[in-house]
Amino acid sequence: MADLPERADIDQLRRKARELLRAAAAGEPEALARLRAVSERPTLAAAQLAIAREHGFRSWPALRSEVENRRQFADWQLHAGTGRAEAQEITLGRWSFGGAGTIEVEEGELTPGILIAGPEGASLEASLAVAEAVVRARQSQRWLPELRDVAVTDDQGSTRTLRLESGYADSDHRLRFDVVCALDSIPEGGSRWLDVQGRDTSVARLLRSSLAPVRVSGLSPAVGSPAERELRDTAWSILLDYLDKDLPAGPDLKRRCRDVLAQTATLREGVLADGASPLPGQFTRLCTALIRQRPPSGLPRGWHSLLSAAGRADGPRLHIDLDTALPPVDGTAARLNTLASWPASWNLYLQATPDWWTYSPDGQHKRDAVTVFAEDDLGGLYISNFGGSRGHPGYAEIKLTMRPRLAPEASLLTLTFASETQQVTAEIPLAP
Known about the structure:
about 30% helix; 22 strands; about 425 residues; alpha+beta; single chain; eleven-stranded mixed β-sheet; about 35% strand
C-alpha cells in the first residue's frame, strides 16, 4: 500500500488514474492486474478506485475528501502564521479581563462582566441595575444610560474613559440593562489588572485572564447522516427554546412538537426507514415528556443534562483566554479568543474568516456556516445561540451564548464546529 503524500494533489492523482487506464487498454499485465483487483470493467471510475484502494481508501470520493482536507489544513497553517501579510487580520490576538464586583454609578449599580481588548479596540460588557426613580425621571421608554462617570485605570496608572456603544433592557427585568461600552484607548496586553471606577471611591477590579492550553483535532467527517443531523438540530432547537422559556408548556409547545413529530414520521418512512437510528424514538419521548410535563426517560445523556439544568443559575464565574486557531471547516476558519462563564450561561468569543454566515443562492436567507456545540467531561451538553457580531474587512468578531449554565464540577470542555460534511474539535481545560 502506497502512503499518500502529505501535500497530495488531486489533479496529479487523476492523471495517474488516466495513465493506469491507458496502460490497461494497451494490454500491460501489471495495469490489467491493478484494475481487475477492483473491477472487471476497464473504466476511468475503476482506475480511480484502484488508485484510491492502493492508498488505503475505500473509494475515490474518500481519497478526494482527504486530499482536500489536507490542502485546507495546510492553507490554515500558513494563514494562521506570520508568513502572509494578508493573513494579518485573523492572527490578531485578543486578551481579556474579568472577575470584577459591583460599583455605584450615576444611574444605579454597574456590574462589569468581561473586557476584551485587541489591536482594533477594547470593549466592556456589563450589567446595570437602574433605580426606578431614574427611569421615571427620564420619562422615556427608550432611555439608555450614559455612564459618564465611569473610568478605567490600569496597573501602570493610565486612565481611560468609557463610551456607551449599545444597551438594551432585560426582557424580564425592565430596570436592568445589558450594556457594551468602548474604551477610548486599548489596555496593554501586559496589564495585570484594570480598575473600573465609579462614583466617589467605588472601584471594581478586573483581573487579566489566564491562557488555556487548547488542544485542537484535525478535520474529520461530520458525524451522522444529513437526516440524523437535521433531526438532532431540531431537537436541540426545541430544548433551547424550552430553556429560554420561549416554548412554555402549553399550546405553542404542543403545536411545535406535533409539527416536528410529523417530520419525524416522514423520515422514519424514508431515509431512516432501516430503524438503525435511535433519534426518532428519542425525539418522540422528548416531546411527550415536555408536553405532559413529566420526567423524560430513554433520552441521550446530553439531553437529560439540558433539561436538568433548566432554571439553574449556579454556574461558575470564570474567564479564560484561548487564542487558538482552528482548521477551516468547509472554508470557514475560526480563531477562539475568550470563554467567559456566568451563573446562568456562558459566552464564547471568536473570529471567523471570511464570514460567519452562508447565504442562499438568491441571497435572501442566511444561516450559520457551522454548528457549534460543546460537551463536558461529565456528559453535559451545551447548545450555542448567536449573541452578536461585529464586521471587519475579511473577518467577523462573533459572540456565541452557550446554554445551559456551565456545570460547576466540569473540568474539561470539548467544543465541536461542524458543517454538513466536516467537523473539528477543541478541548478546553476549565481547571488549572
